[in-house]
Amino acid sequence: KRVAILISGGGSNMVRLVEDMQAQGYAAPVLVASNDAAAAGLEKAARMGVPTAAIDHRPFGKDRVAFEAELLKPILAAEPDVLCLAGFMRVLTPGFVEQFAGRMLNIHPSLLPKYPGLHTHQRALDAGDAEAGCTVHEVTPVLDDGPILGQARVPVEPGDTAETLAARVLVMEHRLYPAVLRRYVAGDRTPVLL
Ligand code: GRF
């Protein structure tokens, strides 16, 4: 299976996905693309021998469709079977999502359906939740919605800040996403629960 990964920043989830694919030999990372040419993850991908592309979203202003038309060019050229969003911070239009219906994944740092959107860890702390975590789901036109393919839970500890909780969740993201992708490319939709 040919897998393309979209990132916006450090790409720590992308790195773990590529490492797992290369170690297990079950899929090929055909592209890592970012909406920011300065994304540190692009350099990491290049060092791992993965082709990269960067399409800066800023020149397009509010014209999401125009930005996505540009972003689609390197993605379609790579002919991916699966598209993984990994720390990708741009909202994608239904038109873009529909082109990858049933073959696009995203990782979100909360136990969906709780806390779609941003600032998930602070919201969990503010709500006094005893647990937090992350979710891998199929991407649908509704933001942070879609069939859940995996979840990992972590305890909220006394004195946790959004930063300490985010760090604890990120460790689980790095375990969850590769486990989900392995099943996904094998056609297995049984949720991974960690
Ligand atoms: C992290 O906050 C992670 O929880 C979320 O995206 C952010 C960056 O992840 N998935 P990455 O290091 O770029 O993969």
UniProtKB/TrEMBL annotation:
Q: Does the keyword Transferase apply?
A: yes
Natural source organism: Rhodobacter flavimaris
User: Quick one: which residues bind (6R)-10-formyltetrahydrofolate?
Assistant: 64, 106
Q: What is its EC number?
A: 2.1.2.2
Formyl transferase N-terminal domain ranges (all copies): 1-181
The name of this protein is: Phosphoribosylglycinamide formyltransferase
Q: Any idea which GO molecular function terms this record carries?
A: phosphoribosylglycinamide formyltransferase activity
Active site, per annotation = 108 (proton donor)
Alphabetic keyword roster: Purine biosynthesis, Transferase
In terms of Gene3D superfamilies, this protein maps to: Formyl transferase, N-terminal domain (3.40.50.170)
| Family membership noted in the UniProt record | Belongs to the GART family.
Give the domain of life: Bacteria
| UniProt key word Transferase | yes
CDD domains annotated for this entry?
Answer: FMT_core_GART
The protein's annotated catalytic reaction(s) are: N(1)-(5-phospho-beta-D-ribosyl)glycinamide + (6R)-10-formyltetrahydrofolate = N(2)-formyl-N(1)-(5-phospho-beta-D-ribosyl)glycinamide + (6S)-5,6,7,8-tetrahydrofolate + H(+)
| Pathway given in the UniProt record | Purine metabolism; IMP biosynthesis via de novo pathway; N(2)-formyl-N(1)-(5-phospho-D-ribosyl)glycinamide from N(1)-(5-phospho-D-ribosyl)glycinamide (10-formyl THF route): step 1/1
The entry's N(1)-(5-phospho-beta-D-ribosyl)glycinamide-binding residues are 11-13
